[in-house]
Amino acid sequence: MVVPARAQSGEQDELRRTDDTIDRFRAGVLACCARHLGEPVVELSQPGGPSRCSWRAHFASATVIVTRREDPRRSELEFQVLSRLAASAAPAVPRVIAFDGTWLIQEDLGDARLTDCLARGDAEQTETGLDQAIASLCRIHDTARQTGLGRDVAVLGVRPAWLEGLAREPAQLSQSLDIPAPGLDLATLAECLAPQRIDFIKWDARPGNANLRDGHVAWYDWEHCGARDPIDDLVWLLADEFVPYDPALEARLLARCLSEIAPDRSADAATEYLSVFGCFHMVKRLQRIVDAKGDGPWQDAGICVGQDKAGITSFHVTNLCHRGTDWAARHPLTRPMAPWFEALHDYSERHWLPQ
Fold it and tell me: What is the mean pLDDT of residues 239-253?
């Protein structure tokens, strides 16, 4: 079941689709539903926008999600992982309805993304939603350990070249914005960024890939999962731009979950790894925002949430920079990044067009 790792990504592929490609994809969805479900499709829609690989098929009394990955091996991985997790990890993952080697039909989890909950800004709902998200990840991790799933997927982010490249990300972002880079011990940082334990993880456990339903959080888009440090899933969740920066909330969440996410480590050791890896994950998120924004203005926050885009707003950049400043200060190796995150925030306030 192992597929080639593509750990640099981790988000669903966004493709530049022509009208002809969209028409052919649409025709394929209709044909797939006819073959496997035998019921006429009333309507097709794309919950993630026209660049995504998934469509929602509407029937008279139900909906399903139909997906075709650009790399068929990714589809196979997603099918195998969901099939093995479904028995014990439900309702944390969608149910597989059909798979023919190309098209995957799965349960529709609905439109209540975790990012919608976070965007509303209600402190109690935010904490509850994040608690539920972490609980579901723990359930997935436990199921994967019991079934040996971590041995059957690709190991992610362990090659020295990948780790060294991640350590150089702040300098590359600095160069693209023409701001001074932080002085970092790149070789030692690359060692610290290596996983301390390798086990099954979702890898792109960002809030945009989670849905709230009936008091549970369920995760979709499994084509990038693999084996790495389980704390990475916590990083993808908490170090995302859509999670409000709230140090007190973070402290409560970590106090409740670290012993379950990383039972092999002390709270201090787990927090240290989370903070160091998290700093560089936030740099990747910032680079994604910078690339998506280009020379244009900030985008509407509601559209960013609704179409599952990066948070291309001043609020989300501020969120990342403040959290980055805080997390960087926790470890001597990342401490030079604390004033760098502050400088990056100042740059965004001075040079980027207002919303």
Answer: 97
Q: Closest Cα to residue 256, out of 278, 238, 244, 243?
A: 238
C-alpha 277/C-alpha 271 separation (Å) is: 10
In the chain, the N- to C-terminal Cα span, in Å, equals 46
Q: What does the alpha-carbon distance between residue 199 and residue 229 come to, in Å, rounded to a whole number?
A: 6
pTM above 0.90?
Answer: yes
6 within domain boundaries: no
Q: Are 69 and 181 part of one and the same domain? A: no
Q: Which of 62, 71, 65 is closest to 45 using CA atoms?
A: 65
In the listed set 62, 87, 107, which residue is the last one of a domain according to the structure? 107
The enclosing domain of 196 has a CATH number of 3.90.1200
Residues 36/98, Cβ–Cβ less than 8 Å: yes
CA angle (280 as vertex; 276, 286 as ends), nearest 5:
145
Q: Name the residue type at position 12.
A: Q
DSSP-assigned letters across all residues of 195-217: -SS-EEE-S---GGGEEEETTEE
Q: Distance between CA atoms of 353 and 176, rounded to whole angstroms? A: 17
What tens digit of pLDDT does each residue of 293-329 get? 998 999 999 999 988 899 999 999 999 999 999 999 9
Looking at the structure, tell me whether residues 99 and 120 fall in a common domain: no
